[in-house]
Amino acid sequence: MITVFGEGRGFRVIWLLEEMGLAHRLRPVDLLAGAENDPEFLAINPAGFIPAIRDGDVTMVESIAIMEYLMARYGPTPLAPAPHDPAFPAYQQFLHLGEAGLAASAYFVLGARHFAPESERQNWSAHQALDVFQTRLGLVTRQLARTPYLAGEMFTAADISVTYALELAQHGAGISLGETEKAYIARTSARAGYQRAMETCQSRKAWFARTPVQ
């Protein structure tokens, strides 16, 4: 039984586990209450951020690394094209772009817009983070004009990575997306694996209900 600690980016991991049909459980982590008040979680990740997993004797953090571990450990899976597959370069690019280029920058936009002092909400770094998000989003838009999914015709873990980032941008950072991206999210979020993951991640489901997007 694989234990996933925390929602947030842990949703990526839960969704992947659902797509792969692997047994798992979600162990909630309340970061607003303070990770220092959760010694069991801190024993898994002393740095105090989510997600983390425990898989037997293995503990890991960082959602994309966890995804790659699970697919390598329990694959092969069509969610991860093989290196000789023509889809592999795009898969690798967008798997990592979903965090490094999109979610990370959207996270800082979210922080500036919702948690920073009023005088700091439009500061230089907030604008920089938004610019980073928008330029990387252009790569997604261009790819989706060519193919229905980011690695081509087939849904892969790259789509899990990027869908999470786009939804974070919409619901958390208040960033508007275009029709191409909205149609893409509609395709990926219609998957049964996504729907089961949302039922597991009740805090995320409640957050979405509080923050509808146009």
Q: Explain this structure to me?
A:
This is Glutathione S-transferase family protein. InterPro entries: Glutathione-S-Trfase_C_sf (IPR036282), Glutathione_S-Trfase (IPR040079), Glutathione_S-Trfase_N (IPR004045), Thioredoxin-like_sf (IPR036249). The protein contains nine helices and four strands; from the N terminus they run βαβαββααααααα. The protein is an alpha+beta fold. It has a four-stranded mixed beta sheet, covered by helices on one side. Strand 3 (52-55) and strand 4 (58-61) form a beta hairpin. Helix 1 (10-20) packs antiparallel against helix 6 (157-171), helix 1 (10-20) packs across helix 8 and helix 4 packs antiparallel against helix 5 (124-144).
Layout of helices and strands, plus pairs?
Blueprint: E1 2-5, H1 10-20, E2 24-27, H2 39-44, E3 52-55, E4 58-61, H3 63-74, H4 88-114, H5 124-144, H6 157-171, H7 179-189, H8 192-200, H9 202-210
Parallel strand pairs: 1-2
Antiparallel strand pairs: 1-3, 3-4
Helix pairs in contact: 1-3, 1-6, 1-8, 4-5, 4-6, 6-7
